[in-house]
Amino acid sequence: MLLLLAFCFYLRFIQVTPLALDPCSAYISLNEPWRNTDHLFNESQDKPMCDNHLNGEWYRFTGMAGDAMPTFCIPENHCGTHAPIWLNGSHPSESEGIVQRQACASFSNNCCQWSTTVDIKACPGGYYVYRLTKPDVCFHVYCGHFYDICDLMECGGTCLDTGDCVCSSGTVLGPDGQTCLDENECELDNGGCSEICINLKNSHRCDCGKGRVLGKDRKSCEDIQGCQNSNGGCSHTCAPLGDSYQCLCPRGLVLSEDNRTCQVPVLCKPSSIEVAVPKDLVGGLELSLTNSSCKGVSNGTHVNINFNLKTCGTVMNVVSDKIIATNLITGMPKQTPGSNGDIIIRTSKLLIPITCEFPRLYTITEGYVANLKNTPLEIMGRNRGTFPFTLEIFKDKDFDEPYRETLPVLKLRDSLYFGIEPMMRVNGLETLVESCFATPTSKNDEILKYYLIKDGCVSDDSVNINFKGSSSPTLQVPVFQFCRQTT
Ligand SMILES: *[C@@H]1O[C@H](CO)[C@@H](O)[C@H](O)[C@H]1NC(C)=O
Ligand SMILES: *[C@@H]1O[C@H](CO)[C@@H](O)[C@H](O)[C@H]1NC(C)=O
Ligand SMILES: *[C@@H]1O[C@H](CO)[C@@H](O)[C@H](O)[C@H]1NC(C)=O
Ligand SMILES: *[C@@H]1O[C@H](CO)[C@@H](O)[C@H](O)[C@H]1NC(C)=O
Ligand SMILES: *[C@@H]1O[C@H](CO)[C@@H](O)[C@H](O)[C@H]1NC(C)=O
């Protein structure tokens, strides 16, 4: 019997998380003095720090790092790094348990250039623990802050002798009854702002989205009417176009999705990320990635940097339905031969964050008769990037020898052995076969489908699914026949 079936698999990368202990006792202390908001980062003296060793554990700020994360915007070049991370939201009370808050990294006058979610818990004893994930890019650091200790109430003639603390305006008493935490004015009525409210230490300010500016009242936002106003919101050139205007980019750069910001072109391939930086933009700078041994190569017009998901310090992150790979290109002046190797001059800085997004869900389909080539199956995606998988049918349950040159001729009660393997493994992620169905012809979009796996569960008792190694599912399926007559 010749198989005239098509099998279709839906695969999703799932996150593997370890078992949880009580975070109030099982935490890791962050106590580095440079982590404190009072620590200014001076580029000519220090190397920027990066929290890329954090891995989703629970952390507590102690010692010279501070007591808790700041809940107001920290400007760039604080906390020992370029982009300090602060908490956009209030600390919880003990009774609230574990809460989620947005954490923002500020950079180039944007208080929330990058953001992530952190879990926070108020512990008995008046301290907080935070579940912190690895930032997408370097150089980002989670900040600690020393909060003020409240003054004992100065008793005039009228007060009761309770010994209660009083915090100054703009701050509220923390759970330990001593620390004055910042009051987040933005949580009440968005701080009166019509768009973005930014909490500052003991105060707040309003801001507007791209292409809009703050009005005279400093609260509402107005549209930018043309290029004369804030350059039309364009990062580079603004040019009038009929009644409106458009943003233009210098040669070699491309407009990003917001139609206003120019960016370097990035090509996201599963085995390589290719960045071409126009030579005009970098001048005499030498470009390197987070791992500084990965350097750019000049071809006269461009400096090209090629790397992949596993090399050069690339950070992988999972955000809802996407896998995001990031790295950072840094430009430094070249060291001239003969100069003292110890002295480096950092006259100008060039930082280009590189991001590639890959979907987490994949459809793999094997029109079995038509496709018996020894080539990996390439899955087409939209213009972002996808990971390829191989799908092979093996001769027996050892999954060693695939059918390649010859078509298998199988009888009912024989078994089919499927092996699915992602060509690119992502640490901390496993592949889940979400569904698998067969159709009676070599097309996978037939109306008649028979599900072997549905919603991650085996829906036919005879199917045997196994995980050989860490993330390559194998499937054993007894041969079956569709009752309908096929031609
Ligand atoms: C950074 O350090 C250099 C060298 O010690 C010093 O001259 C400069 O003023 C410092 N810059 C800032 C912003 O503190
Ligand atoms: C902080 O969070 C609020 C509420 O989620 C949001 O509206 C605001 O834009 C955030 N602030 C910044 C600076 O992004
Ligand atoms: C950018 O421009 C394109 C083409 O003119 C348009 O389809 C798209 O909606 C614009 N995007 C934004 C964010 O304005
Ligand atoms: C940086 O990359 C080089 C060459 O690829 C590698 O040998 C080295 O271990 C990497 N360093 C770090 C800190 O990852
Ligand atoms: C240099 O590299 C860029 C990007 O890969 C390419 O577009 C350009 O044609 C190359 N220039 C030369 C002179 O080879």
Molecular structure report:
This protein has one helix at residues 279-282; strands at 6-15, 28-30, 58-61, 83-88, 98-107, 110-123, 127-131, 140-142, 148-149, 151-152, 165-166, 171-173, 179-182, 196-200, 203-207, 212-214, 221-223, 237-241, 244-248, 254-255, 262-263, 266-268, 273-278, 285-288, 297-298, 302-307, 315-319, 322-333, 350-359, 361-367, 389-394, 415-422, 429-439, 450-454, 457-458, 464-468, 472-478. The protein is mainly beta and 487 residues long. It folds into four domains: 6-16 and 361-478, Sandwich (Immunoglobulin-like), CATH 2.60.40.4100; 31-207, no CATH class; 212-248, no CATH class; 254-357, Immunoglobulin-like. A hairpin with a 2-residue loop joins strand 27 (315-319) and strand 28 (322-333). The model is unreliable at 154-161, 338-348 and 367-383 (pLDDT under 50). Bound molecules: 2-acetamido-2-deoxy-beta-D-glucopyranose (NAG) (5 copies). Residues 258-259 line the site of one 2-acetamido-2-deoxy-beta-D-glucopyranose. One 2-acetamido-2-deoxy-beta-D-glucopyranose binds at residues 42, 44-45.
What can be said about this structure in brief?
GO terms for molecular function: calcium ion binding. This protein is mainly beta and 487 residues long.
